[in-house]
Design a protein that fits this description.
The structure is a homodimer of 346-residue chains. Chain A is an alpha/beta fold. Helices cover 41% and strands 14% of the residues of chain A. Chain A folds into 3 domains: 53 residues, 434 Repressor (Amino-terminal Domain); 126 residues, Response regulator (Rossmann fold, 3-Layer(aba) Sandwich); 131 residues, Rossmann fold (3-Layer(aba) Sandwich). Chain A binds a DNA duplex (30 and 30 nucleotides) through helix 2 and helix 4.
Chain lengths: 346, 346
DNA sequence: TTCAAGCATTGGATCGTTCCAATGTTTGAC
DNA sequence: GTCAAACATTGGAACGATCCAATGCTTGAA
């Protein structure tokens, strides 16, 4: 078959002896066209293989059919799941996702933002790179595209969506307290990560509510990787009294801690209780399976998309701060403390 | 600040007393404009916060600035890495990625294809859902957008990019043979997966080249998940002579097999040699660290993007079939066989 | 027969940009 | 001083759709 010209509304109209306007009405499902006309038009569209040009339509109608999504790193399973959720919700209403990633670089984030904005998306979902300035983001994005900030706070007034880090860590800590633990560590993560700070606060709040105090030596910092966590495991036991359980910054850290404990002859889930955070797929498969906080990143992604779409329909919506609920998944890495110090466990 | 009108080229032109055409030339970096004029224009653009409308430009210039990417499932780390590579290469030349996912559903794939095509991308990178028909894909995509098929073959004439499954399995098998193994199983995967078939052929070829035969009972099928693989581990040893090593369909299967062996009292890396495929991050962290085939999905993604861009620049390019090289990563899950049957290992 | 109301369709202007042929303005060679 | 070549800029048409006000058609009621 010959490489024919690109087909337009005009071609369909001419072939049928109708006007462009009528074809346009058919394409948009208007009730104004006669049923018979609609059928003829649709048949002709099929026959010649006409393809709608959404960019031209959006130009004239000043509408948009895409949403930008900027994440730090797609190879992080949390972001990948989140992106899948965003795309799922957008596709369901006929929108497409414009992808961008920053690799945690503020400069790349600015470049990606300016590039995305030129495609006139209905909105942008942004997980800011560490160290982002709200003012710089506002400048690159221009005044007309709504932005939903996600995962990490950004200075300025933005729609914000995040998981409930505070409550997650609170639930994890509470679970350990209910098992009888009194000396509970917070393991992994860094002070300059906002999500880590929030989790640490939830942990501290749960301890305080139970009348317990968080000893400073029970706070062990470690880069959020399995290897680093395994290396730091020993730091939990350098001073007495040593903790009998740990709330971990995330699952990667928790799995690393499990390895580190095994290497030191301790048995996680028997001698020492561990709670993770995120419920990554490996959490259910480790030895022992990890008790953790499920964050449902895919659902978070769906919510983000819905929020942007809602704002597009009604730009006067109030700026909102939404936290996504989390839940405790109890598996076998948590156990009562080895001795109970005369504590009456019911 | 008041929500002002959307700014256009005309606003910039009017403010400076120039014509639209001149501003357009500046925006496109044309050498025709005087240096001084260019500077004035750029200053004004900054000042009023003008944002380029790429859709309008593409409409007039009949050009494109996006590439569609359709994957089965972003939450699969292989696709996530691949997508990251595609996006990285596209962003480097100012293109954006239009994301779509099929969830392995042929119907959703058709819907996503038609939706993407309406945005007039320069091309589409497609990992076909299992069971896709080439003709249906061609119909949904129309005649004008080049498609690069990736990861799984599709009937018809397409640019095709895949990793070298055959050679990867060949390298894995060869490595085991070099260690002294003579009874080598192929573990995991299903016959109706094309990638599994290719790997199986590479395995068989390596055995044949070494003058060995693949006993049918050394082919154990299992769904490509850790849990299923662990469950099937015992199947390797039901008949004599049992294998002393296994090439696994992928790393997930290999890690599951490790667990299954441990549960049966065997020590992977000491009693039994295991090779994986993919080099997922966990492969380096398992016990023992997994010998595997690295496939560099990010590089594959970059190549896919470059290929589409090349075809866009020169549509007359020949249809090509490109396989991405793979490499063997030796870690500690492979060892010589426990007894050597009088074989003289050098 | 007339007229209003509803239905189905239409031409022309328009969205924000680029293309193109034309026009003015320098510059330098002879 | 003239002329061609190079430089810099320009207005109007065009890309493929939608918007909008206008226009024929049918009806059926008065």
């Amino acid at each position: 078959m010959p490489q024919q010209q690109k087909l337009t509304l005009n071609d369909v109209a001419r072939n049928l002896g109708l006007s462009r306007a009528t074809i346009s009405l058919v394409l948009r499902g208007s009730p104004l066209v006669k049923t018979e006309t609609r059928a003829r038009v649709e048949a002709e569209i099929q026959r010649i293989g006409y393809i709608y040009n959404r960019a031209a339509a959006n130009l004239r109608a000043r509408s948009a059919s895409s949403v930008g999504l900027i994440v730090n790193d797609l190879s992080n399973p949390f972001f990948a799941e989140f992106a899948a959720g965003v795309d799922e919700a957008l596709a369901a209403v006929g929108f497409v996702t414009l992808l961008g990633s920053t690799g945690e670089s503020v400069e790349r984030q600015q470049a990606v933002l300016s590039s995305l904005v030129e495609h006139a998306p209905a909105g942008i979902i942004l997980s800011p790179a560490e160290g982002s300035q709200g003012s710089a983001v506002a400048r690159a994005a221009g005044a007309h595209v709504p932005i939903l900030v996600f995962n990490r706070a950004l200075d300025g007034d933005w729609d914000f969506l995040a998981m409930d880090n505070h409550r997650g860590a609170y639930l994890a800590t509470e679970h350990l307290i209910a098992l009888g633990h009194r000396r509970i560590a917070f393991f992994g993560g860094h002070r300059d990560s906002s999500s880590c700070r929030e989790r640490l606060e939830g942990y501290a709040a749960a301890l305080a509510d139970a009348g317990l105090t968080a000893e400073p030596q029970w706070r062990i910092e470690a880069a959020p990787t399995r290897v680093e966590a395994a290396r730091q495991a020993g730091a939990l036991f350098v001073r007495d009294p040593a903790p009998t359980a740990a709330v971990c910054y995330n699952d990667a850290v928790a799995l690393g801690l499990q390895l580190g404990l095994v290497a030191r002859g301790r048995r996680p889930g028997i001698d020492f209780a561990i709670v993770g955070f995120d419920d990554i797929p490996e959490a259910a498969l480790s030895m022992p399976p990890l008790t953790t906080i499920a964050t449902a990143p895919r659902g978070l992604g769906r919510h983000a998309a819905e929020r942007i779409l809602a704002r597009m329909r009604d730009p006067s919506l109030e700026i909102a701060l939404h936290t996504e609920p989390v839940s405790l998944i109890v598996r076998e890495s948590t156990c009562p403390p080895p001795e109970t110090y005369g504590h009456t466990a019911k």
